[in-house]
Amino acid sequence: MEKKVKVIGGGFAGCEAAAQLARRGIAVELYEMKPVRFSPAHSDENLCELVCSNSFKAMRLGSAAGMLKAEMELMGSVCVSCAKETAVPAGGALAVDRGKFSALMTEKINENPLITVIREEITQIPDGFVIIAAGPLASEGLSESIRKLCNGSLSFFDAAAPIVTADSIDMDKAFLQSRYDRGEADDYINCPMNKAEYDEFYDALVSAESAEIHSFDRRKDVYEGCMPVEVMASRGRDTIRFGPMKPAGLTDPRTGHRPWANLQLRKENVEGTMYNLVGFQTNLKFGEQKSVFSMIPALRNAEFVRYGVMHRNTFINSPRLLNEDFSFRTRENLFFAGQITGVEGYMESAASGILAGINAANRLEGKEKFIPGKTTMTGALARYVADESIKNFQPMGASFGLLPPLDEKIRDKKLRYEALAQRGLSELQKAISKEQ
Q: Which domain, by its residues, includes 223?
């Protein structure tokens, strides 16, 4: 029987998955719907078209983005290789000439004798070994097929609250308590505010600047199910005090009284290294989020792992549907990759494609799964999208908040991040050697 895998989607994840399969001698049919059909955000026929920024973030190893790219290079990333070849000056970031990058990616994929690029829109999920690497703007037909496969578990709009690292929360100004003491005491971190603090925060919130909503995101239902906190606040000074910041059922141990207003933080992962701002879905500009939300006393020095966003972003409820190797739990020969899995960002999408490609090849050849350890950025992302403890799943990019802490305490953040990166790269090198 011929070894063949169908990859749906010619973006970062699809191209990386195809390249990994071909490296292992497996034939690939890579389906790309352009130019037969373009999404509202695409206009170039080339693969891996850059829709938003031309930057792939920081290169330094002591950054989450830099650590991720270093790991991808170890695994033979075609995206990182092409990005370096088409780079433009951008300080410490890896930025590219977007036209040259997409053209080079297309050339690399087309010249591979084991990869056949088929310019055709796929609306039904094929049989056999398949990797679905459709991006956040998957076509309506394919999205509907995925929705049916997932029993309706498919989000078409991403309305997410910010996430902060646990160790950046000032616990001298916060306390642990579940509302009305229901549940475990450490289920929530509470960030209380007195009246003066709340009034100052409220004034800043309602006057902060919102991010632009792209034309292809302008849908009434973006705001129906999950109203941005700034929109809710605009309805009246006390609206959010009776909504996401209600203090009912809570007692601040510092005062012995109920706070005037209170923001609750909920664990984002089972390790408790990250917390999300409950009910704080927002469309504010990132700089405004940092400025305004840091006015909450317990978050004065908060480190934001991810800012809140509100835009179209088709993704599945991966913690209920995917394994850590990106395979679909009820169909072992089907894999997902890219932003549709809930990873956020160009390189994060590419990294998921690398793992999906490797694991599809391993499954086809009867080999063991390849899942990098939890101290690696790629392994941490894979575990995040498959973490069943996450109740309100939202997309996530590379972040040191995903990684377990070091055995030793390093106070200097720069040195701590470099140590985390070195630890992860060392573990990945061992895993690659073992896998080969």
A: 163-307
Phi, psi of 90 (to 5 degrees): -155, 40
Instruction: Tell me how far the alpha carbon of residue 182 is from its chain's centroid.
Output: 31
Same domain, 264 and 180: yes
Given 307, 337, 370, the domain boundary residue is 307
Other beta carbons within 10 Å of 41: 16
Q: Is 275 helix (H, G, I), strand (E, B) or coil?
A: strand
| The last residue of a domain, from among 307, 332, 349 | 307
Question: Considering the entire predicted model, what is its pTM?
Answer: 0.73
List Cα–Cα distances, 207 to 230, 292, 309, 323, 392, in angstroms: 9, 10, 18, 43, 28
* CATH number, domain containing residue 345: 3.50.50.60
Tally the residues of the chain: 436
Task: Provide the pLDDT for residue 235.
Answer: 93
- Please state the φ and ψ torsions of residue 380, each to the nearest 5 degrees: -65, -40
CA-to-CA distance for 50 and 11, rounded, in angstroms?
9
80 and 177 co-located in one domain: no
**For residue 154, pLDDT beyond 60:** yes
pLDDT tens figures, 176-227: 998 877 667 677 899 999 999 999 999 999 999 987 654 434 444 343 345 7
Q: Which two tokens stand for residue 178?
A: 């579940």
